[in-house]
Design a protein that fits this description.
By secondary structure, the protein is mainly α. 64% of the residues lie in helices and 2% in strands. It is built from 13 helices and four strands. It has a two-stranded antiparallel sheet. A hairpin with a 4-residue loop joins strand 3 and strand 4.
Amino acid sequence: MDTHPLLNSQSNTTQDDEIQPSPPPEPPLSAQRPFLHRSRTAPALSAMPLGLSDPPRPHKPHSSNSSLLTQSLLLLILYLIVGVIIYYFNRHHFSGAETHPIVDALYFSIVTLCTIGYGDIAPISPFAKAFSCIFVLFGFGFLDIALSGVVNLVLDEQENTILAGIQAAGTGDNHFTKNYIIDVEKGRVRIRTKVGLSLGVVVLCVGAGTLVLFFVERLGWIDSFYLSVMSVTTVGYGDKAFRTMGGRLFAVIWLLLSTLAVARAFLTLAEARIDKRHRRISKWILNREITVEDLLAADINNNGFVSKSEYVLFKLKELGKIAERDVLQICVQFSKLDPYNSGKITLLDVLQSHS
């Protein structure tokens, strides 16, 4: 008896399905598609929204150099004018050797401003003593402005001139220049060079004062050098001082410049010591091994491990480059640019924040 062909085909199909092996499992997604890196030249957005444009970059606030110089010069002129007027009309309230009223007034004002205290011109009346107290206090404020403002400005210009001269001369690749004069990576003059320049200016001021005291004031070489050093260091024992009109005119300019130069030299020496100490501490911090306490402190997200960004933040805080308050302020700024808490800032977020 013949079987029905349809039944035979169904049975054969069933047998084939039973014999045919099952297909292998699909490989995981990571094996199917290779890990692709996004190209740096790829567009940030697939489509730029209409009506949005890149806002202009805000300018960084900075102080005007010309205004700082102008303010300092005006304050100095005002200070000297007040001192000259008070001394000129009240000369009988002061004791000391006289040369010319205007020259003596300028000399007294500069000696008071620089806090040298020769004692060759001194107040003797209650009015003059009260005026001198107020005059000295205002002089301290002016010295702070001059030292922190004008002197720093002049030294910055000097540093820029040195860097520009070295680059123009093409000596930036010289081994001696790179290792002892400038810091190529940071683009500034090295601390040791600043110390050398500051000490050189002090030596120049002492030498100039010694020569003028010897040839103008007719002092001996030892006494000239002695008075010059006592003057630039603002010690001023009072046993010797400027007596002639020419010497006092020279002292008006020389004392102001030399005392500021010496003060800046001491600050540069202190900066060099602090910089050396910071470099030693930074080297120790960067080279020491991480501990369990460090791991717990660096784990900002409390997820049991430290990411690269968390480790960088931890080391920056340990080095004293940033503080926890700075990190919190940056996080607040990030949250403003990321209103949906997606954990990232896109170009669209930036453009919408300025719209």
